[in-house]
Amino acid sequence: MTHEPGQTLYIDGQWRPAESGRVFPVTDPATGDVIGQAADGDATDTRAAIAAADRALPAWSGATAYERAAVLAKADALMRERRKDLAALMTREQGKPLKASMNEVAYAADFLAWFAEEAKRIGGVTIPSARADQRFVTMRQPVGVVAAITPWNYPISMLTRKLAPAIAAGCTSVLKPADQTPLCAVQLLADAGVPAGVVNLVTTTRPGEVGDALLESPVVRKLTFTGSTAVGKMLAAKAGATLKRVSVELGGHAPFIVFPDADPVRAAKGAALVKFLNTGQACISPNRIYVHRSVYDTFVATLEQRIAALRVGRGDHDGVSIGPLIDERAVAKMEAQVLDARTRGARVVAGGERLQVDGLDGTTFFAPTLLADVTPDMLISREETFGPIAAVTPFDDEDEVVARANDTEYGLAAYVYTNDLSRAIRVTEKLRFGMVGVNDINPTSAAAPFGGIKASGLGREGGYEGIDEYLDTKLVGISV
Ligand code: NAP
Q: Residues in domain Aldehyde dehydrogenase (predicted)?
């Protein structure tokens, strides 16, 4: 890393302290240890970052697509080369098991690789005119300075999913990462080697102040945000005042439906893998598991066995598959959802409580939990959990389960297990979600469009669509 401790603002290619001199500690959620200091940037620092991005814009948007692609390709190679170090830092800062961190770094690098190629495919079209003496062509041009605000749960891949298409399109950016995971962002920028001003970083514990400075600036032409629905809606509304382009990736409440013709054992294995990924702190995590009554007992018993095999602990210890939750607030939410479900008649088949892991001072470990006989009136059926609780509900009828799955303000991911092709297509068409996994627990890739509908967001990240969010179309009419 090229910066001194506490000098984690990256503005105009320079590492700097906050103008105020303030810093904040960054902790390891597994041990409670302080692992670093970050600069606590404010509105003044943010305005400096915006000015740097604005100054860099003419040269960067004027660079050829091949030059922009080369920067991304180099960043991709460096990220893969330094994968282990980046993963180790992520595990310390965020808590996820080392293997999951390694996977995330690879996924993050995939966005650099994908958009390095997409940079070369930004083209326009020619359009026939009704006038014989006229020609139409379109140009696709960068939207300008981008504000990127990211969450802590995927502290590297959520950044490259935004910065890579911005860089490819010829935009310049100001990034504000989550205050729990600023060091991953710092390391990412230290390694990436982008030209001065193209990406600027403001670490902070003052999200409102920094967010307002970004959103009030007329220079910033786009907001890209990943985080909670409440904050996303508020930021999108503020961005409306200066009519910025907006893409927001927000919360989810994924249904996971197991039909009677599916193999309940395979479905339960899949549910265990995707539910407890990242300690359940994933926007595409199944929150409502609906299982047909005829296979319900087999499914619950298999899921219980899989949960019994999960080891909770510090992410850098061998064999650990579940790390800590990010903070106390997250543990309190787990406890409230379990208490509510228990009071309303759910069975706690496994877990259900906070854990103390031997030898660790971290207090945010929660036992992987299985709740059976969950009903629609329970909190967990309505509210995103964002933690390691699998909530299972029996159902009898296809129409009934589709209606229940759609009965939510969210619309990010959904999962369907069935061996009946007609049913798979029929149900997929009816599910009001942006992504559907059919007998598949990972419908994501840098090459595929990620995103939700309704309260889960606007716009798509990755895939062919991902770069469109960073481009404006200019129409040129030519009289000949
Ligand atoms: P969050 O509280 O909304 O925070 C997300 C980011 O917004 C953080 O950088 C946060 O800063 C910042 N922020 C908070 N208040 C702000 C304000 N007033 N102005 C400007 N920025 C502000 O969400 P989170 O708890 O970190 O993340 C979990 C949520 O993200 C879940 O709902 C999850 O489903 C969603 N998520 C969605 C996707 C997707 O692709 N759809 C992917 C991952 C996560 P601080 O950290 O400093 O507060």
A: 15-476
Please list the residue range(s) of the chain that carry CATH number 3.40.309.10.
Answer: 254-438
Residue 263's pLDDT is 98
DSSP string across 132-178: TTEEEEEEEEE--EEEEE--SSSTTHHHHHHHHHHHHHT-EEEEE--
Structure-block tokens of residue 303: 């899921």
Residue to substitute in 175, 231, 385, 445 for testing ligand 1 pocket (most ligand atoms within 8 angstroms of CB):
231
Backbone φ and ψ for 246, nearest 5 degrees, come out as -135, 130
pTM of the model as a whole: 0.97
Q: Is 283 designated active site?
A: yes
Q: Torsion angle of alpha carbons 63, 69, 71, 72, nearest 10°?
A: 140
| Catalytic residue list contains 249 | yes
pLDDT at 385 over 80: yes
CATH (residue range 254-438): 3.40.309.10
Q: What is the distance between the terminal CA atoms of the chain, rounded to a whole angstrom? A: 56
Confidence of residue 2 (pLDDT cuts 50, 70, 90): low
How far does the centroid of ligand 1 lie from the alpha carbon of residue 48, in Å? 23
Q: Which atom of ligand 1 lies nearest, measured to the CA of 251?
A: 34
CA of 225 to the centre of ligand 1 (A): 8
Catalytic residue from among 118, 171, 283, 398? 283
Q: pLDDT, tens digit, for every residue of 24-76?
A: 999 999 999 999 999 999 999 999 999 999 999 999 999 999 999 999 999 99
CATH architecture of 9-250+456-479: 3-Layer(aba) Sandwich (3.40)
List, for residues 301-351, the tens digit of each pLDDT value.
Answer: 999 999 999 999 999 999 999 999 999 999 999 999 999 999 999 999 999
Q: How far is the CA of 68 from the centre of ligand 1 (A)?
A: 29
